Amino acid sequence: MVIPKIVSAAAIATCLLFILAGVAFAGEIKGVVTAQGMRSPEGIVVYIDAIPGKTFTPPTEHAVMDQKKLIFIPHVMAILKGTTVDFLNSDSVGHNVYWPAISGNKKLAHNLGTWPQGVKKAFAFEDIGVAPLLCNVHSEMAAYIFVAPTPYFAVTNAQGEFTIKDIPVGKYTLKAWSEQGKPVEQPVEVSGAPTTVNLTVHR
């Protein structure tokens, strides 16, 4: 005869507390980036720097960098280290995609080649830093892929606004990268409530 186990109310309550704690112990950082001496505060990457002892699994879903009307879309893309990016050609002409370095390291340069409309090529970015995208066919085309060390990042909108969600409670270093401005960093503490941080980036 099998005697069914009786789960006590205290055990159930304890489990619920752990579940709720997992939800409560995450917060968000929101704010505005002011760009001084730059044409716009849009397209600035705000992110939490590497966390000692922490590694993150990249998403299975690929990011997409499109090429349309001789423009890379988006102009600035932020991804987690290890993320695969699909480079799509939506134009009726052939495009070439390459980057001469990642954060100045020319050993990480790569050329994906040239391909026609409707075709896409994939590349997994395993090195943290900034890859400046160029096209050998159209010299006016340029964009940036920012490879972040954590999944806690955002790209500012036209007003310089950003929100980074689902950050575990703790103390971190918040950084900002931009195409034209100098890097910025400052300490930040995340609690269960939203944390407001305003940054100023100088050219």
Short recap of the structure:
The chain has 203 residues and is mostly beta strands. It has one helix spanning 9-24, and strands at residues 26-36, 45-48, 63-68, 71-73, 76-80, 84-89, 95-99, 110-115, 120-124, 129-134, 142-148, 153-155, 161-168, 170-177, 184-190, 195-196, 199-202. It has 2 domains: 26-55 and 152-203, Immunoglobulin-like, CATH 2.60.40; 57-149, Cupredoxins -  blue copper proteins (Immunoglobulin-like).
Secondary-structure blueprint:
Elements: H1 9-24, E1 26-36, E2 45-48, E3 63-68, E4 71-73, E5 76-80, E6 84-89, E7 95-99, E8 110-115, E9 120-124, E10 129-134, E11 142-148, E12 153-155, E13 161-168, E14 170-177, E15 184-190, E16 195-196, E17 199-202
Parallel strand pairs: 1-16, 1-17, 3-6, 5-11
Antiparallel strand pairs: 1-13, 2-12, 2-14, 3-4, 6-9, 7-8, 10-11, 14-15
Second CATH tier, the architecture of the largest domain: Sandwich
Range of helix content:
under 10%
The run of helices and strands is: HEEEEEEEEEEEEEEEEE
Distance between the termini: 77 Å
Number of strands: 17
- Strand fraction: over 45%
* Poorly predicted segments: 1-7, 10-24
CATH topology of the largest domain: Immunoglobulin-like
Q: What is the CATH class name of the largest domain?
A: Mainly Beta
Question: Going by CATH, what is the homologous superfamily of the largest domain?
Answer: Cupredoxins -  blue copper proteins
How many distinct folded domains?
2
Number of helices: 1
- Output the radius of gyration: 21 Å
